Amino acid sequence: MADLEEGRGRKWLQQASKEEVLDPSPQAAPAHSQSPSSHNKDDKIEILEWTPNDARNPYNWSSSRKWITAALTLFGTFVLTLNGTGITIAADEISEEFHIIDTSTFSNTYWMVFSWNMGGAFFVLFLPLLEDFGVKRPYMLFYTLFFCMVIPQALAQNYATLIVTRIISGGCTAVLANTIASAIPDLWESDSARSVPVGLYILLYVVGNTAGPVVFSPVMQYIGNWRWIFYIQLIVYGALAPVYLFFLPETRGHTILGNEAKRIRKESGRPVYTVQQRDALPIKERLLKSVARPLYLLFTEPVLLASTVWSAFALGLVFAFTQSTEQVFQELYGWTAYQCGYVQAAVVIGELLGWPITLYGTNLYLKSARRNREDPGRPIPEARLYVSVFGSFVGITSGMFVYAWTSYPFLPWYAPAIGLAMVGFGIQIVVCVIADYVVDLYAASDFAGSAIAAVVVGEQIVAAALPLAEASMYTNLGFQWASSLLGFIALLLSLIPLVFIWQGRNLRERSPFMKSNGMKSDDKVTVEKL
């Protein structure tokens, strides 16, 4: 997918096929050719394609170069998302300085995180427009804009400045995270080869959003000035800028190939183009497709809508915990805001424990090719969902009830923290599984990029909105029943993977945007190697 359709939006979308026209497989477009081929539709245009062993093709890079590039991008995913929730532990200090008045049922300081997520929901729809520019140029452009938006957050003299600049910084983070994600399928071609880097990407994306209060709690404990949360971010982001500028290579194969075609045209005057340059859509059509198609799919495809709601609720809990843990642990144990920030490390620990389960789930998925009678040799899309049943029921649902009914002052603090860890465990599994499953469903019919864009937009909106109701819920219902309400919602949503596993094939066959096999025609798995 444009950037979205090759990464994730979050992330893992290289299967998004024809929506981006890109097909950098070794058979169709392997390494860089020094002389253009002539198998083109128009005799006046020469098409430049990769040759099989060109070292400039990212698929042909050495393993060490791939992993160094991936490490740079994955670390960026983690540190950039810290900007989203790191400020939540300083809500009281910001309220006092800017004279923000909270009510017993609503915290106005949460608008800082709401605006950050809504910016992400808006910006992410326009990612496909950046596709022609590759990975590095858009990354550096939005990284610079992001850095510039963190400066006024550190120096803000009024609350409105924080809100407005965080809309833009949240939008930039969404673009950067999804641009980073697109580098992974640019580097690794097969499902099995990219399973670890894709899993790491989703892990760091989720953990980065969760760990903001944990990472910046020492700032409030030892410095006591909320502006230093942003000063430290500026130091880190400023130090990373030259690293990305000088050491992050371009990873998008068709962009590298396009630059070569441009050089040949300039030096020789020959009409040499890549397939992507020849078939590029006008910007108006691309804009319409990038914005309208994800929203259309979201509201006309029941499977996509259910998947989006399920994943969005899971990720939304991460942001809800930035509010509820402070309410619960302050009232029950008299903790300070920064101490409540530390306890969210329990969610992070759970997410880390969930990652190996997602890798195991990928293994189950690949092995399902052995028993696929519908389309022999290809994995069954619903096999992705097996581990999510455990993660959703035992992780999120059970964890919410543990968190609910251990929220009593006569129980030790680590009792509700165990519930938080269980929920984090389930969140990691569900978010990862849904992303992979949606890509598998729509890859064969060229709509994977738009489908995953719909999921990302839904996640951002729910992450923005769910915590807005948190203060009212926990005040009016009490800690036990407020968390139980979320647990009952999680229980209901946990039925979604069971329905998909039971009726997945029928649901796929009824969809005009899926093919029943849920995979591209060239994605067969060699069963003997499993």
Description:
It contains 20 helices and 4 strands. The chain is mainly alpha-helical and 530 residues long. The chain has one domain (3-529): Growth Hormone, Chain: A (Up-down Bundle), CATH 1.20.1250.20. The strands form 2 sheets. It has a two-stranded antiparallel sheet. The chain is globular and about 75 Å long. It starts with a helix and ends in a 20-residue tail after the last helix.
SSE order and pairing:
Layout: H1 3-6, E1 31-32, E2 46-47, E3 50-51, H2 63-85, H3 91-98, H4 111-123, H5 136-155, H6 159-187, H7 191-223, H8 227-247, H9 253-268, E4 272-273, H10 275-278, H11 283-300, H12 302-333, H13 337-343, H14 345-367, H15 386-405, H16 414-443, H17 448-465, H18 470-476, H19 478-493, H20 495-510
Parallel strand pairs: 2-4
Antiparallel strand pairs: 1-3
Protein name: Major facilitator superfamily, MFS transporter superfamily
Subcellular location: Membrane
Family: Belongs to the major facilitator superfamily.
- What is Rg? 23 Å
**Architecture per CATH nomenclature, i.e. the level-2 architecture:** Up-down Bundle
Q: Superfamily at the CATH H level?
A: MFS general substrate transporter like domains
- pLDDT < 50 stretches: 1-42, 516-530
Kindly identify the CATH topology. Answer: Growth Hormone, Chain: A
Average pLDDT confidence is: 85
Question: CATH first level: which class?
Answer: Mainly Alpha
What is the H/E order?
Answer: HEEEHHHHHHHHEHHHHHHHHHHH
Order of strands in the sheet with most strands: 1-3
What overall geometry do the principal axes of the alpha carbons give? globular
Strand content: under 5%
Domain tally: 1
**Helix percentage range:** 55-70%
